[in-house]
Protein: Transposase
Organism: Granulicella mallensis
Amino acid sequence: MSTKIHLLADEQGLPVDFDVTAGQANDCTQAIPLLGERTTGHVLADKGYDSDAIVEHVAAMGAVVVTRPNATGRCSANTTKTFTNREIASNAAVAGVFAIG
């Protein structure tokens, strides 16, 4: 059996909230509970969190969803926009939370 850590971080990559699920749990099931009623301008997310329900929730927060483009350079139909260089840096900071030294 494996586990997944679903992490919500701020724009500096600092953890704000997290949840641990079974490894087979779908990533997108945890986004809305983690986001809750927070407010922000952008929500950077892995492609696993790109769904209609999440995009609608983020829009209700007054924000847009930002995801990394796929191998063809395109984002899914749900995504509002793609990463800018600054957002890529923020995403890297979040990924750094999981780095093992």
In short: The longest helix spans residues 85-96. The CA atoms of residues 76 and 101 lie 34 Å apart. The chain has a mean pLDDT of 76.
